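Good morning,

Attaching, inline, the backbone tokens for the sequence recovery test we're adding to the shared suite. The designed sequence is right after.
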């Protein structure tokens, strides 16, 4: 949530900052602003709304070669012009310091009180503004010293970038719990909360650690601990393709990312399947066969869609390894003083690797001595660093708020984990090889589902007319239904509720009517007959049906009814079917939202990474 970008070099900063902010907008988009160091002092432009509004309103003469920018997702105070970042220590024309900040200052109220008593006038409702004043009031001789002194007074999380009129050649940045990188260019340097902001300029970066401060000038950077002793960090070249951060010919990132799934799935599997022994190789788990064998339980923690795919993962672990497994919302976990068991493997699943609830769950487990591994997409992210080992997802950058390709790769990560756990137990080599064959078939089968986009778009437009929908499934199909409902509500803003098909008659059937369609997950498996029986109950109450199913499932006299639509996905091994059943639900959500004219990549009230509690 929220994005930071900074520039120091020979070019005009403002256009570079605005372009960087556009690329960060998925992380927060209720207001945006930039500050540049100009000859007469600091110039600030900021306003509520999107980055394009900021760009349109930017004064013609906004010259300056050192600057910082921010796109905000409100946490303290409403999304208005005053609360937008950068924050300064004084009104326009008199400001000496400008600050942009991601994260939350927990003791902001006490600091505001203290500053007010000292006669400081605070103009915004934000926690960040106190930082600008603390830096301005510091008696230290250097900007690094002033920032260090100010940070010593605050409690909470931050990624910050600071400019000061008395130190016009530099940006000072600092990190604690909120990612921040320094980008190295040709006689120009960058600061960013996410590589996306600067990838068009450089992929040579240094990732700051928690507690680190960086002083960045046009010709280089120096890193320090908070007590200003050197950490001598150097930059490395990241192996990323800048094009991965562009939507290209796609009308949105979500569309692009859905269509990237076959290639992303291949990357997730590459080099990890061992056909000879019918198992998976996951060296990053840092566990030998004896340790793997000693695991008695698996507990998966994630939020939102990562939690739902975690439920799919728990199913895979139970089926393949016969180890009791369950998934829990990471956002709830630490609040119930969880019992941490030594022979349980805890698995944290997160695309961003930044989700604060998942990170705090990991910290709770580690504090109590548990072993936790991560299924994480963003390499070097906070959760990845905090875990004892893990499986990187290799989905590539995911920009759309609605997670698609990362989610698919999470499922594959769980399948690999379950295979490895199973093969040190009772899963036979034949079953291991059967699953490996299935995994190898998946990318092409995902492509087959994506090829149905035209037909699914028409169906989605009809579903979009409904104010309220059910998504139902059983056992392997239930997390699929939950994820389908999640995607649908996130971007179409329709009320979509997931239920176990078996639970319908225990209450929700009362809501079924002509106006409430049900999307039913009905794979060809041991529950098909029971599922089809439930479909009849829905049809008897005139509820329209979309049945996501396999070609050989017989819907009996429901076939051919005008209010029953069939979406057919290819069959794989039954354990792997959930992910193929999920892909058409992404397309349904996408086309419903498109039809309704919504901003697909930036749905209302949501941001890509939830870094605040
Ligand atoms: C849904 C979605 C969210 C995320 C959740 C966890 O499409 O994107 O529900 O899945 O916020 O995010 P990560 O995976 O980054 O921890």
């Amino acid at each position: 949530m929220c994005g930071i970008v900074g520039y120091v070099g020979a070019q005009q900063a403002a256009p570079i900052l605005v372009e960087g902010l556009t690329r960060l907008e998925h992380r927060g988009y209720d207001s945006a602003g930039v500050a540049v160091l100009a000859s007469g002092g600091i110039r600030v432009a900021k306003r509520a709304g999107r980055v394009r509004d900021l760009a349109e309103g930017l004064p013609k003469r906004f010259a300056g070669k050192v600057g910082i920018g921010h796109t905000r997702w409100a946490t303290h105070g409403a999304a208005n012009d005053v609360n937008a970042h950068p924050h300064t220590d004084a009104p326009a024309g008199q400001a000496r310091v400008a600050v942009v900040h991601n994260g939350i200052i927990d003791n902001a109220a006490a600091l505001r009180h203290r500053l007010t008593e000292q006669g400081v006038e605070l103009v915004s409702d934000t926690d960040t503004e106190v930082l600008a004043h603390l830096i301005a009031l510091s008696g230290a001789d250097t900007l690094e010293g002033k920032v260090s002194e100010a940070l010593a007074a605050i409690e909470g999380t931050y990624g910050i970038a600071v400019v000061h009129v008395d130190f016009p050649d530099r940006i000072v940045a600092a990190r604690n719990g909120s990612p921040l990188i320094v980008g190295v260019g040709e006689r120009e340097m960058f600061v960013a909360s996410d590589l996306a902001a600067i990838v068009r300029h450089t992929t040579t970066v240094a990732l700051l650690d928690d507690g680190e401060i960086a002083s960045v000038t046009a010709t280089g950077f120096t890193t320090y601990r908070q007590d200003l002793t050197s950490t001598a960090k150097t930059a490395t070249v990241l192996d990323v393709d800048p094009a991965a951060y562009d939507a290209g010919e796609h009308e949105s990132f979500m569309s692009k990312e859905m269509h990237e799934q076959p290639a992303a799935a291949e990357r997730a599997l590459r080099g990890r399947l061992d056909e000879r022994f019918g198992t998976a190789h996951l060296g990053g788990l840092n566990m030998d066969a004896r340790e793997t064998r000693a695991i008695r339980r698996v507990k998966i923690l994630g939020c939102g869609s990562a939690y739902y795919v975690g439920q799919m993962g728990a199913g895979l672990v139970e089926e393949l390894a016969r180890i009791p497994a369950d998934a829990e919302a990471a956002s709830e976990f630490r609040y119930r003083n969880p019992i941490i068991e030594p022979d349980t493997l805890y698995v944290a699943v997160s695309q961003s690797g930044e989700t604060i609830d998942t990170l705090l769950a990991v910290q709770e487990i580690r504090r109590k001595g548990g072993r936790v591994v991560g299924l994480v997409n963003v390499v070097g992210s906070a959760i990845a660093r905090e875990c004892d080992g893990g499986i990187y997802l290799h989905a590539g950058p995911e920009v759309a708020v609605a997670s698609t390709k990362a989610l698919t790769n999470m499922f594959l990560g769980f399948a690999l984990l379950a295979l490895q756990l199973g093969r040190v137990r009772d899963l036979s080599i034949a079953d291991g090889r059967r699953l490996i064959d299935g995994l190898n078939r998946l990318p092409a089968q995902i492509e087959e589902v994506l090829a149905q986009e035209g037909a699914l778009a028409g169906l989605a437009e009809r579903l979009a007319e409904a104010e309220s929908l059910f998504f139902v499934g059983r056992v392997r199909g239930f997390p699929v239904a939950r994820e389908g409902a999640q995607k649908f509500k996130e971007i179409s803003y329709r009320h979509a509720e997931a239920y176990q098909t078996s639970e319908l008659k225990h209450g929700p059937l009362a809501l079924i009517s002509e106006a409430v369609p049900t999307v039913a997950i009905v794979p060809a498996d041991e529950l098909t007959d029971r599922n089809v029986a439930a479909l009849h109950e829905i049809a008897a109450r005139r509820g329209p049906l979309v049945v996501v199913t396999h070609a050989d499932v017989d819907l009996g006299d429901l076939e051919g009814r005008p209010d029953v639509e069939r979406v057919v996905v290819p069959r794989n091994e039954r354990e792997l079917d959930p992910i193929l059943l999920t892909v058409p639900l992404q397309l349904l959500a996408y086309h419903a939202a498109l039809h309704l004219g919504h901003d697909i990549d930036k749905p209302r009230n949501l941001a890509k990474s939830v870094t605040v509690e």
